[in-house]
Amino acid sequence: MAGGSLYHDDDAGAITDINVTPFVDVVLVLLVVFIVTAKLIVARGVEIDKPKAATGGDVSVNAGGELFVNGDKFGTDADAINRIKQIAATTSKPKAIIAGDRKSAYGGVMRAIDLVQQAGVTAIALENEHP
Asked: Residue 5: phi, psi to the nearest 5?
């Protein structure tokens, strides 16, 4: 049987070789699906680069509704907006992280968001603490 074929045409013997082409196709499709879904899962998160006190824009509201920018208390909205503008001018991509006390009113946090937007900062994140 020199020069004979690996497969025989007679029906008596079963073909015992495995055809791996469909298996490879399925594995490649699963790999593509995994890559696409992994990118979607990672893209869901919010990228927050919390700035330092000297260059950042931390805005806080305490339980009494008082507004703080980088730890400094501001009584009027205009003063707070001016300070936020000063801080935002020190960086090319200004970001603001707003933190509200658990006992503060929802309106206080919304006021802080509004002041940050009036100062021209559009990248806003709300700070929270993991339980």
From this structure: -85, 155
pLDDT of residue 55: 42
Is residue 116 within 8 A of residue 108, CB to CB? The reply is: no
Structure token pair of residue 34: 């995994």
Are 57 and 87 spatial neighbours (Cβ–Cβ below 8 Å)? yes
Instruction: Give the model's confidence band at 80: pLDDT under 50 very low, under 70 low, under 90 confident, else very high.
Output: confident
Q: What does the H/E/C string look like for the chain?
A: CCCCCCCCCCCCCCCCCCCCHHHHHHHHHHHHHHHHHHHHHHHHCCCCCCCCCCCCCEEEECCCCCEEECCEEECCHHHHHHHHHHHHCCCCCCEEEEEECCCCCHHHHHHHHHHHHHCCCCEEEECCCCC
